[in-house]
Amino acid sequence: MDKITTLALAGNPNAGKTTLFNALTGARQHVGNYPGVTVERKEGEYRSGDFNAVIVDLPGTYSLTAYSEEEVVARDFLANEKSAIVINIIDAANLERNLYLTCQLLELKVPLVVALNMIDVASDRGMEIDSEKLSTFLGVPVLPIVARSGQGLDELMAAAKAMAEGRLAPPDPAKVRISYGEDIDYTLLTMTGLIRDHALLKGKYPSRWIAIKMVEDDEVLIKEVNEASPELGTRLLHEVEIVAEHLMKTFETYPEAVIADHRYGFIKGILKRGIITHRYDENRLYTSDRIDKVLTNRFAGPLIMLAILFSIYQITFSLSALPISGVEAVFGWLGGLVDSGLGDGPLKSMLVSGVIDGVGGVLGFVPLIMLMFLCIAVLEDSGYLARVAFMMDRIFRIFGLHGSSVMAFIVSGGIAGGCAVPGVMATRTLRSPKERMATLLTVPFMNCGAKLPIMALLIGAFFADHKALYMFGFTLFSWVVALVAAKLLRITVLRGAPTPFVMELPPYRFPTFKGLLIHTWERTWQYIKKAGTVILAISILLWAMMTYPGLSPDKEAVFVHERAQIVELYDAGSESGEKLLKEVDGRQGAVALRNSIAGRIGVAMEKVTWLSGFEWRTNIALVGGFAAKEVVVSTLGIAYSMGETDPENVGSLGQRLARDSAWSPLVALSALLFMAFYAPCFVTVVCIAREAGSWKWAFFSIAYSTTIAFILAVGVYQVGRMFGF
Amino acid sequence: MGLVNGTEITVQGRAPLNDPVALRIRGNTLTLRNNEADYIEVKVEAEDKN
After folding, report:
1. What is the CA radius of gyration of chain A?
2. Interface of A with B (CB under 8 A)
3. Which of A151, A279, A309, A473 is 20–30 Å from B6 (CA)?
């Protein structure tokens, strides 16, 4: 009962590791039909009867060479956690390629259980796989499962348990001693002998495995060997050189290629012995390929892609209109309740102006964000996003990026409604450091979910007739800015040659209802959580900064005097008298806000921001937006409700802005541009620093994006003014 | 990823701008840029059965 087993899930990208992980742990990890969704390793608990296990979801890898970061993560884990039982999950429909990793796991001599996943898909394709036979040939248990539906999981875990308790014989190394041809085998034999005699890296890797990796020219391992014993390293590398030279002379090939050849030969040898039976022609076009004929068609493909992306806007805006007005009404009602229920004072002001207007403004957009996330989830889970990367690579290459950057851009909000934080993390799937850095620094330009409310607010207030068009236009423009910025970075600070684009197009899969719900809810909940914590705190802080210091007694006295005069002149309750009184209240509010800490900061900033047409209240909001972009909306809400000059006609924030003399469609456009491209929010900046490995890049990101944003905003505002808008 | 000597490859499709190219290998679809795919040496087997 007390013993906890570690189970590691290893397998090719998109083989279903995360799905299995979720099924076993009951966790709700993000699963996408896109290779490389799991970059970091994740852990969860599994409990069944007296079997307790920690399950580790390793990043997907095709092999165990240290070619990419994912492979290094997976390999380090397997080498360092000796006690772990490895569950190698393989895609039954792609046995041959998936077994390539299995071979290497066997060579690494880890305790292994093979989970043959997606046997349902394989069976739909007319493939029958004899898992028992496969098990005999590999010398490890092979269990057919369907991770999506949970079929076969109990049997799989029973096998893992038996393996952990030592009731199953460990794999027989003789069975999987792959021959790599006479030349290499001889070299391996010599090297293995040397490694064993010197106990090189003993206990970490098997000696033959070290030899194989060195022949494969695995830089990370060679470095490790050289650090452990420089002298032996030189000797071993000399052996590698001899065989490499020989292979070059006789076959004109590299040792890596010979090794890969033989591994596939070994796999083919096994599979030929009646493991797979095909009911149909092996090379027939599957439904997925037929869909691709249309969706990635040279002419129809791009048009369909644009149509799909545009329809997402139409869907989200038209369907979310009603629930949004509902949520707004609830908060309006709540505000009214507090307003009438509490006496005037700081508490009421804080609740109404700080909490309800601030947080309510952000929460009002939950329906919109939820629908947007749902649409993205459908695209991602179905496998369409990978096609987008495929179609866009040529264009991305022009800008010094990579087709795989597309995923990072889209996650960050390329279809609007993402978040730059996972986007920044998604850049880890990029292999070249330069392309990765360029992607890292430009993904925050995308329309993340937090910018959507600001866009929806300003576009709704000033360009209501063409909402979807403006929104779509802004998204396209954010792509243009990001790509041009990437190109500029790639020809200045990040110069370097492009890296290969090698990506798999996974077969289309029908998204599961549960998957979509998890996906959508996960992201929406993050948004709501942020509204309830960070944004609530910042709203209150900003409210305080906008309230204090209050007016000086003599200034206050001026307004008190004015009120007294009005009361004297008009009868109590008369309409014109009330109106004048309220007008005085409004003026007092405006003067007080201007006098507050935030007001003073905003006014001071007008010295620069007049160029782009921002008045001091907008400045306050934009500064607040650095903490989190959603704060822009809540701060505008607070600023314009406190300084409200016409309380007869409160209305929504959008209506207030549209009426305010400091705003005009041109100012709104300038503000939209600035807001879309200025410094990434604080959380993103922290992530950039972490991913780039230095704060230097994070500060660079803040500085260069704010500069670009300001230039754009000033340009539009000044040109617009010239043309008399 | 399965691109080794003796593997049967078919060109499954091309991206709208003619590049990258999608190849069918061992039942998978793999995409490569043209200049990378240039390194693949092929022996044309037979015309398409269709």
Report:
1. 31
2. 62, 93-94, 96-97, 100, 257, 260-261, 264, 282-283, 289, 292-293, 296-299, 301-302, 390-391, 393-395, 397, 403, 500-505, 507
3. A279
